[in-house]
Amino acid sequence: MSTPLTSTARPKSASPQSLSGLVPFLRPYRARIALALLFLFLAAAAMLAFPLALGRLIDAGLLPQDRGAQLMALREHFALLFAVALAMGVFSAVRFYLMSWLGERVTADVRNAVYRHVLQQSPEFFETTQTGEVLSRLTTDTTLVQTVVGSSFSMGLRSAVTGLGALAMLVWTNPLIMLQVLAVLLLVVLPSVWFGRRVRRLSRASQDRVADSSAIAAEVLNAIPVVQSFTAEGREAARFDTATEQAFATAKRRVRARSLLMGFIIVATSGALLWGLYQGTQAVIAGRISAGHLGQTVFYIIMLASTFAVLGEVYGELLRAAGATERLMELLDSRSPIASPAQPVRAPLAQAGTAIEFEAITFHYPSRPAQAALRDFTLRVAPGETVALVGPSGAGKTTVFQLLLRYYDPSAGTIRLDGVPLPQFALHELRARMAIVPQEPVIFSSSALENIRYGRPDASDEEVQAAARAAFADDFIRALPEGYATFLGERGVRLSGGQRQRIAIARAMLKNPPLLFLDEATSALDAESERMVQAALETAMRGRTTLVIAHRLATVQQADRIVVIDQGRLVEQGTHEQLVAANGLYARLAALQFKS
Questions:
Q1: What DSSP string runs through 291-341?
Q2: Is domain 356-595 in CATH 3.40.50.300, yes or no?
Q3: Residue 518 forms beta bridges with which residues?
Q4: Which conformational region is residue 517 in: left (phi greater than 0), alpha (psi within -120 to 50 degrees), or beta?
Q5: Which residue in 52, 81, 228, 379 has the fewest CB atoms around it within 10 Å?
Q6: Contacts with 67 (C-beta within 8 Å, 6 or more apart), sequence order
Q7: Distance of alpha carbon 448 from alpha carbon 482, whole angstroms
């Protein structure tokens, strides 16, 4: 069973250890990481050398001496300072480029991996996970990962190296004073840890609230015609406002906690280091150290103070990125209950249709475990046979298609194609044997040509156009502004319902599988178009097994067999004439429709 990714199912906090989930994505770039770390250490070393060069300038270049010698000494020391600054700039630029490249590359890899993984999930996953939730993880969370990998981690590591180097120099040159400072700094750690935990919890909660508002937006924008037809724009805007305000309130608490954490660290460390600086000035006055030594110490103290400030900021970013990484890893760890077997069968495609066998099938949708969608359902379809599935709404007709496509596995019983149980097929090979024309056709944001070619990506333009002619779609496509190259808009908004249906029929015909599913395939067509498409479908059904779902019984009277399903059970089957004579459920449905 896949795990639902709802806000209530998520852990309430993440720790920096959660970032370890990025290790597999970083591993392929070990050489580049090593090179970036090399330049990071070189840049830190150059930065630590700067105060030393400054101390030599003060002590040697500004001492009373011959004017000419003094000018030469100053030039030498300034040249040394410039060389150190040049090295620091070059090393930092290379380090920045390498780490930024790494952040962008890893983010792209994570985003691709998450998207590829989501595409492989069964419909059960999408019963419990909102599309907006997934989109939030693909955008907001991966952006946080990019920030930490490409910037924050590098900045934090550089500051840590520089701070440790500065601390080592200070302890080496002023051991007694710095030991006192270190004792004070240790007192900063305990409250910082407590603040950090609170920031971590609030960071995760903030990301959850942003995901909630994204889910609302995705749902409403995908149903904008319905929203506007019910004049619900104000209600939906208010609902989104509520979600964003909740996200803002959570973010405000997170920002306040991070601000307190950062302010506390800056004040505490600055106070401790100012104590050390005060002790240094006393040492100069007493003659124990030189002025250059003091200047050098001041720079190292500033480095150390800025290190704590930067690390406080970086730690907050790491906590946010840890929460984002944990959410992404949850998504990547979700496992679909539907998967290809380790050793799938290699059954050849049948030339004259596919034999189908349902044997004592019982099935419950995961979201409705108490209600059986199919119950003790047994059906056999011969190769090349056209079978119509009819019955009241909710009887289980569409479930038959979904089980054949192996979107789900039955709770009990076995389904076979040409004698082979479905779980023994590789999913790709199984679904390659089938094509479906759904009741609500899906049109992608692409051209008419590419929408039809979706059925067989390697098809030539001529084959695509032939499929369109067979589906009676060629004429209206050529009448579009750019013909087959016309962009159809999101979800095909530039087409009528009947035109979208004919595009879907052409797509299925181009795929040319041995098994064809028609789910109310002519429901959106006018009478004239329906006659044309029905003729095309009759041609397409020749030589292949076809299952047809229809509520309009007039469209299935010519089927080889009509199967009547009611409340998940097969209650009748036969030809139209046989079922009418039996005076059962089909006869009652037919009487209602034909009488009206």
A1: HHHHHHHHHHHHHHHHHHHHHHHHHHHHHHHHHHHHHHHHHHH---S----
A2: yes
A3: 437, 548
A4: beta
A5: 228
A6: none
A7: 10
For tokens 């790494």, name the residue: 102
Q: What is the mean pLDDT of each run of 10 residues along the chain (596 residues)?
A: 44 60 87 89 84 70 57 69 84 87 87 86 77 76 79 78 80 71 64 64 68 74 71 82 82 76 71 70 73 72 72 72 79 83 80 85 88 92 91 89 92 92 90 86 86 89 90 87 86 79 87 88 67 70 84 78 92 90 87 68
Residue with tokens 């069973």, as numbered in its chain: 1
- Whole-angstrom distance, CA of residue 400 vs CA of residue 378: 11
- Rg from Cα positions in the chain: 35
Q: Which amino acid is at 168?
A: A
Q: Spell out the residues 6+ positions from residue 83 whose beta carbon is closer than 8 angstroms to its own.
A: none
Which one, of 331, 333, 6, 336, lies nearest residue 142 by Cα?
A: 331
Amino acid at 314: V
Please give the backbone phi and psi of residue 473, each rounded to the nearest 5 degrees, phi first: -110, -10
- Per domain, the residue ranges of the chain are 15-333, 356-595
Question: Which CATH number is 15-333's, of 3.40.980.10, 3.30.70.2760, 2.40.37.10, 1.20.1560.10?
Answer: 1.20.1560.10
Residue at 149: amino acid letter: V
Helices (H), 433-552: 448-453, 461-470, 474-478, 497-511, 527-541
The packing angle between helices 291-333 and 67-119, to 10°, is: 10
What is the spatial order of strands in the sheet that 372-381 belongs to? 372-381, 356-364, 412-417, 420-421
| Closest by Cα among 359, 315, 363, 330 to 123 | 363
